[in-house]
């Protein structure tokens, strides 16, 4: 298929060219379209020797862009008038891009004092690469008429070569609430506002297409505490959760404690003199109430009172730890420095880089991109595309998902986000007053679609149903009363009775405690020999399925075949066409032993039970996953080198492999997702993030939809 190239060009100052460029990469990723990124000409920031755009894409496991032509080479070529030579070099680099990357995002140059002719170079790039231009700017005003005037003025300043093909325009840093007001929209998303604005300014006479609207957001500017320490020349007293806690507000506290209590909110960075033991103690007390301050900056250079610090030490360690930093400067000087910090997004802040990319992607007109590419792109399920697919399927018929750990802050936030995105109807089990308090101190607004079930008021209702299902195992009424004190058991019996559609737990309890009630009450489907599990491993280029890595210690051949068939069905359910490798330490008979024989027998059982499945084994992992190895070890195999479903011979192999890949390659693993149960129950890692919980809820909702259909 023909390669399609888009060149992003900035128009104006501080327009966020890099953010939009990497966000376009994520946009194509969400579509499942093979995309590449090409920073043709390097333009590092002052004091840096690397390209930020490429670095951002590398740390997010999206791409590994090739090195750009050095900035010194760019300046030399333009100063000597040898721009054509420079473009030839650009083309030679461009032709090395892998052929499978069908659409390429090329980032242009920004005009600077030492490169004033950046737009002329951008025009040369557009011509040399036969690229379509995407202009990136920020609006001065939000009304349609003002935007038309601004965009027309912009076009008049650009070299004609940039406009040879009708350009597209992306508006960045948009004041979305103000735009909604001008367009008479209520609670519109960025994409909905874009569509409304497109309709307002639509005209065949306008020489551009408006294809993107990216809103300003405080979250996009929320710096981690870890990123300010060196800039303040600070000394760390308690590192705490420096790499995760974000600064959403800065408060200089020199007042008495009663007058500064309102400043003690999650996300606030407290700046106070080092000798204010009362404020230090108040910050520690806030930590005991689940208020996650961003950090505590102690100013003035004097040493804080040791007894006070010792007294607060345990409180400071709660919830990952409150960062406490001492600086030599005064409170006023420190506050001024904080407000003048370098606004550039640190490459190490992977969470924020992903947030920027997702925010841009959600504001793009993907229908325009598809049409402009003039071809149907071949689907591949990248991690962003996988997550997008999961949530899209879940939205089609929102399911009721019970969350037994309803008082846990991450769980509450995930439930709220699920409601906001219409992914699922979440039910929190927990004390309503405690849930409300946790939401308040974490600045969360409970969504009306999030239900709250007070276990104290409903437990008695489930006593007899539980006894009916467990009396044959010797359960007494006293045992049942005690079991129902466990919210996971309570949620599981509700699922069994059909009052909810799925259950997700494990953020604060073990896998065994999550799975055991399901095995006792939900039981397996008639077509499943046993319950098993899969992980969705989000590698940079695609999502792989690993099974079984969590449940069955040493399955026999029949059970291993059942796990393979279940895993293939799970893969298909989420848009992955299964190519199944049965993993062993031997490839197609190169070794021998009972374990190899088991895998070989299981492979034959799968072929007999479902001849439509593409499966082979035994295969070693490298032969199953790497084409070059496959050509040597298994040249005739239809699976070797292209497997996307990996079935491990036992729990020791599977669990070890998934953790090794996850930790060594910085890979996100979603799961374990249980399969084979009559109704869906899924476990979380105790270190799960809000996103992990959200997508596990979405997976569970999709499973629930499949269960109801079957």
From TrEMBL:
Subcellular location: Cytoplasm
Molecular functions (GO terms): phosphate acetyltransferase activity
Pathway note: Metabolic intermediate biosynthesis; acetyl-CoA biosynthesis; acetyl-CoA from acetate: step 2/2
Keyword vocabulary terms for this entry: Acyltransferase, Cytoplasm, Transferase
Domain of life (superkingdom): Bacteria
Residue stretches making up the Phosphate acetyl/butaryl transferase domain: 386-701
Entry EC no(s): 2.3.1.8
Pfam families recorded: AAA_26, DRTGG, PTA_PTB
Substrates-to-products reaction catalysed: acetyl-CoA + phosphate = acetyl phosphate + CoA
Domain DRTGG: 227-338
Main location (coarse class): cytoplasm
This protein's domain notes: The N-terminal region seems to be important for proper quaternary structure. The C-terminal region contains the substrate-binding site.
Assembly and oligomerization: Homohexamer.
Family: In the N-terminal section; belongs to the CobB/CobQ family. In the C-terminal section; belongs to the phosphate acetyltransferase and butyryltransferase family.
Entry protein name: Phosphate acetyltransferase
Source organism of this protein record: Haloferula chungangensis
Chain's gene name: pta
């Amino acid at each position: 298929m023909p390669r399609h190239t888009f060149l992003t060009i900035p128009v104006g100052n501080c327009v966020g060219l890099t953010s939009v460029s990497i966000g376009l990469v994520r946009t194509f990723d969400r579509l499942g379209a093979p995309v590449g990124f090409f920073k043709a000409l390097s333009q590092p920031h002052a004091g840096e020797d690397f390209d930020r755009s490429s670095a951002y894409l590398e740390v997010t496991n999206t791409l590994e862009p090739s090195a750009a032509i050095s900035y010194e080479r760019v300046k030399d070529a333009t100063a000597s008038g040898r721009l054509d030579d420079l473009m030839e070099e650009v083309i030679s680099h461009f032709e090395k891009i892998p052929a499978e990357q069908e659409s390429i995002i090329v980032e242009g140059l920004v005009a600077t004092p030492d490169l004033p002719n950046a737009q002329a170079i951008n025009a040369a790039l557009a011509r040399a690469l036969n690229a379509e231009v995407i202009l990136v700017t920020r609006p001065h005003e939000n009304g349609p008429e003002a935007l038309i005037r601004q965009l027309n003025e912009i076009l008049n300043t650009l070299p004609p070569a940039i406009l040879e093909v009708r350009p597209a325009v992306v508006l960045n840093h948009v004041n979305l609430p103000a735009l909604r007001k001008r367009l008479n929209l209520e609670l519109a998303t960025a994409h909905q506002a874009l569509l409304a604005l497109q309709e307002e300014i639509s005209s065949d006479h306008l020489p551009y297409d408006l294809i993107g609207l990216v809103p300003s957001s405080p979250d996009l500017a929320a710096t981690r505490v870890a990123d300010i320490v060196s800039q303040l020349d600070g000394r760390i007293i308690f590192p705490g959760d420096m790499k995760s806690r974000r600064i959403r507000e800065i408060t200089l506290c020199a007042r008495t404690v009663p007058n500064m209590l309102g400043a003690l909110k999650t996300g606030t960075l407290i700046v106070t003199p080092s000798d204010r033991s009362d404020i230090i103690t108040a910050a520690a007390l806030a930590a005991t109430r689940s208020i996650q301050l961003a950090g505590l900056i102690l100013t003035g250079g004097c040493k804080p009172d040791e007894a006070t610090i010792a007294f607060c030490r345990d409180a400071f360690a709660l919830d990952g730890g409150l960062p406490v930093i001492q600086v030599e400067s005064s409170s006023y000087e420190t506050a001024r420095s904080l407000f003048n910090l370098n606004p550039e997004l640190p490459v190490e802040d992977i969470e924020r880089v992903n947030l920027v990319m997702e925010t841009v992607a959600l504001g793009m007109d993907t229908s325009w991109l598809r049409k402009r590419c003039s071809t149907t792109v071949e689907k591949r399920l990248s991690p962003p595309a996988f997550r997008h697919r999961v949530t899209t399927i879940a939205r089609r018929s929102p399911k009721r998902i019970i969350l037994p750990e309803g008082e846990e802050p991450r769980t509450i936030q995930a439930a709220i986000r699920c409601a906001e995105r219409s992914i699922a109807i979440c039910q929190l089990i927990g004390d309503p007053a405690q849930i409300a308090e946790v939401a308040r101190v974490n600045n969360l607004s409970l969504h009306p679609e999030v239900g709250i079930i007070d276990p104290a008021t409903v437990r008695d209702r489930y006593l007899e149903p539980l006894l009916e299902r467990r009396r044959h195992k010797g359960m007494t009424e006293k045992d049942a009363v005690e079991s129902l004190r466990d919210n996971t058991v309570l949620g599981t019996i509700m699922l069994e009775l059909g009052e909810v559609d799925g259950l997700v737990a494990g953020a604060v309890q073990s896998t065994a405690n999550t799975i055991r009630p399901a095995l006792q009450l939900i039981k397996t489907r008639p077509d499943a020999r046993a319950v098993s599990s899969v992980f969705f491993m989000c590698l940079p280029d695609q999502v792989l399925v690993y099974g079984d890595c969590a449940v069955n210690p040493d399955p026999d051949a029949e059970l291993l075949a059942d796990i393979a068939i279940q895993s293939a069905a799970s893969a298909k359910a989420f848009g992955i066409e299964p190519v199944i490798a049965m993993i062993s330490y031997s490839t197609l008979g190169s070794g021998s032993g009972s374990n190899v024989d088991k895998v070989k027998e299981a492979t034959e059982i799968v072929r007999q039970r479902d001849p439509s499945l593409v499966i082979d084994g035994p295969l070693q992992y490298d032969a199953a996953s790497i084409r070059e190895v496959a050509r040597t070890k298994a040249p005739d195999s239809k699976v070797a080198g292209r497997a996307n479903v990996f079935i491990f011979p036992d729990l020791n192999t599977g669990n070890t492999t998934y953790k090794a890949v996850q930790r060594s390659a910085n890979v996100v693993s979603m799961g374990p997702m249980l399969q084979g149960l009559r109704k869906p129950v899924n476990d979380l890692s105790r270190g799960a993030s809000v996103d992990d919980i959200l997508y596990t809820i979405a997976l569970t909702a999709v499973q629930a939809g499949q269960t109801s259909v079957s």
